[in-house]
């Protein structure tokens, strides 16, 4: 039986609605990821700058647009990268 990766979920839509920058909250969630865990981020737009930051940290991503103001991004460690 294949083991399913654990997912840590973080929704920053309310933070952004209140004009709070969620960058530190996102980075803290990433720091807290354990081996094999992924981060599922909910955002009101496609977070292009964050995708670049996470790529430099060794993360790949999958994007899904749920509706015009709801994007889901799953970040996971690139194969062979140390967490």
**Widest sheet: strand order?**
1-2-4-3
Structural class by secondary-structure content:
alpha+beta
Distance between the termini: 24 Å
CATH domain class name: Alpha Beta
Number of strands: 4
Name the average pLDDT: 91
Order of SSEs: EHHEHEE
Major β-sheet, in short? 4 strands, mixed
- How many helices does DSSP assign? 3
| Share in β-strands | 25-35%
Q: Work out the radius of gyration.
A: 13 Å
CATH architecture label name = 2-Layer Sandwich
Low-pLDDT runs: none
Describe the structure.
Residues 9-76 form the DUF2249 domain. It comes from Thalassobacillus devorans. The model has no long low-confidence stretch (mean pLDDT 91). This protein has helices spanning 13-17, 23-31, 48-56; strands at residues 7-11, 38-43, 59-67, 70-77. β3 (59-67) and β4 (70-77) form a beta hairpin. The radius of gyration is 13 Å and the shape is globular. The protein is α+β, with helices and mostly antiparallel strands. It is 28% helix and 34% strand. It has a single domain (7-77), classed as 2-Layer Sandwich (Translation Initiation Factor IF3). The protein has a four-stranded mixed beta sheet. The longest helix has 9 residues, at 23-31. The protein has three helices and four strands.
């Amino acid at each position: 039986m294949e083991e399913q990766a654990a997912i840590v979920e973080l929704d920053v839509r309310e933070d952004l609605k209140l004009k709070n920058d969620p960058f530190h909250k996102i980075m803290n969630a990433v720091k807290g990821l354990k081996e094999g865990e992924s981060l599922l981020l909910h955002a009101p737009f496609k977070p292009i700058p964050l995708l670049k930051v996470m790529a430099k940290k060794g993360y790949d991503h999958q994007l899904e647009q749920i509706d015009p103001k709801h994007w889901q991004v799953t970040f996971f460690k690139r194969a062979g990268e140390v967490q």
